[in-house]
């Protein structure tokens, strides 16, 4: 088989992939020669990846184009809903899509609208295998050598990027995370590859930071409860009614305010990690996009580990699947002794598709009431998780109306926690993980929309009047450290 037989399909793949991305991207792609070369290298690697499975040049080219078409569609949807391009860590979430399709605006694989195109695609691939001749050498020995050599070469190339020489080159191309800039320069594929390799390189080359600041305090609480409220912010900011809980927050909280979070409309784990560790996303390098994937819960200075060292029993409460975000394993490593998850809420009432927030509040209070000794409890709610679409709530189809219905229950849950903990020496913190991904609240060019938080300190006489103090999620994590670990002034090592 001639060299042209291989190069012509590859050229078609490179030109076609660029055209697909340029047409779908909201940004004008860079036309600088160096940037185009890096972009083309990314496309070529995708084509070679598919080529190793079939050894059919035109099938590999078509597979490359299909890959770019799918990535571009997903990227456009993600930018519209979340305000962020597709990133390498999103690939790790693919396994969750068929298991939890309701969370990803997709249909289950059993749905004919999904199963039909997949079966047609499989049939087309089988037919293509029959119709297009293989590019393998004619002799058996040379064919076996080629079949083994190509994946070995691609693997060696990936590992070479993790060497000091390879990481030096990647640092020049990707000195720090800037998705919007880098996707415009190098395209989705090369940026995803570069970011993934930069993150892997960070594991070997860079020490893990710790929280750098923590206010002095005395950890004398019986109970510390921190509740991450799904998609929570003051509904009055969306034109909704005033929540009684917000009035109580402004009247009774030790402090409250806006909370600057790392993402809009999704990526709960980013806010969780920031609060639990006190680490700003900028401190995480290329691991910022999914700290659980990058660090797997190995955080020596997490709130849970500090609390456990100070004599608290540590409990995590979350009414959803253990496998989601690999939370069961991650939270064990973060320092939680006991996990209360979906199987423990089998009889709890649901509001829409998820366990109601009031039921979670009742379970939290039951946990701290039954615990022996001091307890640190971190909870993540689910009731107000998207998507908000027709059929979710009987008689309520508009996304904003659904959200306001759920957030009223969130307010009731906050009040239930205030009432249940007010008689104890306790700290209660509630905060929103991210703004909801609603049509009425699109992503902002200036960055993720802030949520709201409140910090209550019960069982203390006097004290300053409630005041508004706006924080980042990481700063809130540093404030909470005073409740679980006294007189900590630096947690860097």
Automatic annotation (TrEMBL):
Gene3D superfamilies: Alkaline Phosphatase, subunit A. It is a multi-pass membrane protein. Keywords: Cell membrane, Membrane, Transmembrane, Transmembrane helix. InterPro entries: Alkaline_phosphatase_core_sf (IPR017850), OpgB/LTA_synthase_biosynth (IPR050448), Sulfatase_N (IPR000917). The chain crosses the membrane at residues 114-131, 143-162. Residues 224-443 form the Sulfatase N-terminal domain. Its main location: membrane. It comes from the Bacteria. It is found in: Cell membrane. GO terms for cellular component: plasma membrane. This is Sulfatase N-terminal domain-containing protein. It comes from Methylorubrum thiocyanatum.
């Amino acid at each position: 088989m001639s060299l042209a037989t291989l190069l012509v399909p590859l050229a078609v793949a490179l030109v076609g992939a660029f055209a697909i991305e340029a047409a779908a991207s909201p940004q004008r792609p860079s036309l600088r020669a160096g940037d185009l070369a890096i972009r083309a290298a990314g496309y070529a690697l995708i084509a070679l990846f598919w080529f190793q499975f079939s050894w059919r040049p035109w099938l590999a080219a078509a597979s490359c184009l299909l890959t770019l078409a799918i990535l571009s569609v997903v990227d456009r949807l993600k930018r519209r809903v979340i305000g962020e391009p597709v990133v390498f860590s999103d690939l790790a979430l693919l396994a969750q899509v068929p298991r939890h399709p309701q969370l990803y605006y997709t249909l289950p694989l059993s749905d004919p609208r999904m199963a039909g195109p997949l079966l047609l695609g499989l049939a087309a691939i089988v037919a293509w295998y029959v119709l297009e001749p293989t590019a393998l050498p004619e002799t058996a020995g040379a064919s076996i050598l080629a079949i083994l050599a190509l994946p070995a070469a691609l693997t060696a190339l990936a590992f070479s990027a993790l060497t000091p020489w390879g990481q030096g080159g990647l640092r020049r191309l990707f000195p720090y995370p800037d998705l919007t800039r880098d996707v415009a320069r190098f395209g989705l594929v090369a940026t995803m590859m570069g970011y993934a390799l930069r993150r892997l390189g960070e594991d070997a080359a860079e020490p893990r930071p710790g929280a750098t600041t923590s206010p002095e305090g005395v950890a004398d609480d019986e109970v510390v409860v921190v509740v991450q409220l799904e998609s929570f912010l003051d509904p009055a900011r969306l034109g909704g009614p005033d929540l009684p809980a917000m009035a109580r927050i402004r009247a009774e909280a030790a402090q409250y305010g806006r909370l600057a979070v790392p993402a809009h409309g999704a990526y709960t784990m980013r806010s969780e990690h920031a609060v639990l560790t006190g680490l700003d996303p900028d401190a995480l390098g290329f691991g910022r996009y999914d700290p659980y994937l990058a660090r797997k819960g190995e955080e020596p200075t997490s709130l849970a580990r500090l609390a456990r060292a100070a004599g608290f029993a540590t409990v995590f409460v979350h009414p959803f699947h253990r496998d989601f975000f690999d939370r069961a394993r991650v939270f064990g490593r973060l320092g939680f002794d006991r996990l209360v998850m979906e199987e423990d809420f089998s009889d709890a009432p649901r509001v829409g598709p998820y366990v109601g927030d009031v039921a979670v509040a009742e379970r939290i209070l039951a946990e701290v009431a039954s615990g022996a000794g001091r307890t640190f409890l971190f909870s993540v709610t689910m009731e107000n998780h998207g998507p908000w679409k027709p059929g979710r709530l009987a008689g309520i189809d508009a996304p904003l109306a659904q959200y306001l219905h759920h957030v009223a229950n969130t307010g009731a849950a906050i009040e239930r926690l205030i009432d249940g903990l007010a008689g104890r020496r306790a700290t209660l913190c509630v905060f929103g993980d991210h703004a909801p991904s609603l049509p009425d609240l699109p992503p902002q060019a200036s960055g993720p929309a802030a949520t709201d938080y409140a910090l209550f300190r019960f069982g203390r006489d006097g004290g300053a009047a409630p005041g508004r103090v706006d924080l980042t999620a990481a700063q809130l994590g540093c404030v909470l450290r005073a409740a679980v670990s006294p007189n900590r002034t630096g947690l860097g090592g």
